[in-house]
Amino acid sequence: MPPKPDPKPPEGGKLDPVNALGRIRFGTAGCTATVIGPRRPDGRWDVLTAAHCVSGVGARGTLTLKDGRSFGIRVVAYHKTPDVAWCVTDDEVKDLPYALIAESNPPVDTPVWHMGFGVDKPGNREDGTVAERENAQGQLRMVLSVSSGDSGGGIFRSDTNEVVSVVCCTSGMARKVSMWGCSAEVARRTRPRPADDADEAWVPVPIPICKDGKREDADTREWTPHPIPIRTGGPATK
Q: DSSP 3-state assignment of 15?
């Protein structure tokens, strides 16, 4: 039989890379993530972050966008070596800001930017450049300033605003130095494919228990920036 054609993604959302960046929290560990479009055929959204920000497939967390909206997310793909993880929103959402992943890795010297939630100037735009092509770990080396809390955030081409990398680790904090992140091509290859509705098992969702008007499972812990890994012995900055 011929392969079943991929269903057409439902319309919805707005191409808006700046506002597609949001804070994610798994427990108290706080990182950055990017909503990636187009919207999935099942009406939910893919969310891209770093593997060191999550504990593995099945982990559940929260995504909070700059407009204040929060959504439950679940890890569906986890790849430690390139340091990339894909999450999916728990619910169908019609209108989220999103970014697109570049179809190919950028050439060396391509200007890039990011706007993560790091402890150093959170939300501030940082500009840099691609310093080396994809290595054996599936990562690009860039010269860019990042800090704890920026982990998992998208790094974008300055000319197209497409995602070309995901913040993994750095050789120094809060200054323009060598840092690394999963490449665009690896992120594209590892992006999860939504299963047909018929293939997904129906799992009953536990009903929340309330006591004195409050949910017992409510997570009231603060978002704490996740320490960004430090990589030593790397190439000199460019």
A: strand
Say which amino acid occupies 224: T
For residue 185, the SS3 value is helix
- Burial pattern 48-59, b for ≥16 Cβ within 10 A else e, equals bbbbbbbbeeeb
CA distance 82 to 105: 14
Cβ burial of 134 (10 Å; 0-12, 13-18, 19+) is middle
pTM of the model: 0.81
Please check the confidence at residue 82 and state whether its pLDDT lies above 80.
yes
CATH number of 111-184: 2.40.10.10
Q: Please state the domain extents for the chain.
A: 111-184
Distance between CA atoms of residues 151 and 30, nearest Å: 9
pLDDT confidence band for 202 (50 / 70 / 90): very low
Burial of 66 (C-beta count, 10 Å sphere; 0-12/13-18/19+): middle
Give DSSP secondary structure letters for 98-159: EB-B-SSPPPTT-EEEE----SSSTT--EEEEEEE---TTSEEEEEE---TT-TT-EEEETT
90-118 b/e (C-beta count within 10 Å ≥ 16 → b)? eeebeebbbbbbbeebbeeebebbbbbbb
